[in-house]
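Morning. Coffee machine broken again, so started the prediction first thing and wrote up yesterday's gels while waiting. Chain of 289 residues, entered below exactly as on the submission form.
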Amino acid sequence: MMDEPGPRPLVWHDLTSRPRPTCDATIAYGSDAMQKVDVWLPRQAGPHPTVLMVHGGCWQTEVADRRLMDWVADDLRTDGYAVWNIDYRGVDRAGGGYPGTFLDAAAAADAVRDHAARFDLDPSHVVAVGHSAGGHLALWLAARPHLPADSPLASAKPLKVAHVISLGGLPDLEDVAASPDNGCGTEVVALLVGEGRRDPYADTSVSRLLPLGVPQDLVNGQADRIVPFRMATAYVTRAQAAGDMVALHEVADTGHVELLTPDTAAWATAKRSIAQAFARRPIDDRHAQ
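Came back before lunch.
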């Protein structure tokens, strides 16, 4: 007797054909059309537990922008979280690539502090959630305190990220560049890290910046054809060996789209990780100003 086939992996239309929810506000952190943040606010009184959300799309604006995260941002808003859903110039935009894509992500994240009072956000314990290429950037934002001092990306006072949830992320850029089977291809990495630099991965690839010193949860699907599952296991091995607290959540019958689609097992796993990230908050941080 033949085994029953598993459920069909979701495709992008399964998500984007749903009615699109709308954010509560949009702020600009620069003059470019992509230098924007959508703010999603719960109805409850603040200060709101704040999720810093980073979209994917192979670091290319033409592939995806922050609107791809609208459905999960709305779902988190309903659950009582504020969502700071950032955008940035991809490598295919003027000013994107190295260092622009990274500087945009950093400026968008730091803007949480500038607007915390206006939106009643709690910037003292921010949890970053990123999907695909956004998983790389979410982890990189947590790694900013470890950037080489001479890097153009270094900042004197980066926003502290307390916990990262990576959804089908691509944290090790050297692995991506050496893996033609990843859905983003290999050529995009050179545009992202800056061709011709002496060591272009030293301040861009998360694996080079370990240990991050913050807990990390990776949620990855067994059937993901964009990000091979081995990329997650390889990164977890490196991060744990460096001393980081990292958990890998493997979700059966799951591709890339399910990771940011409400009502899927993958998103339920992600939400449990988010809830635990806020519950794990240190006692002495709960009264930080």
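The longest strand covers residues 161-167. Going to sketch it on the whiteboard this afternoon.
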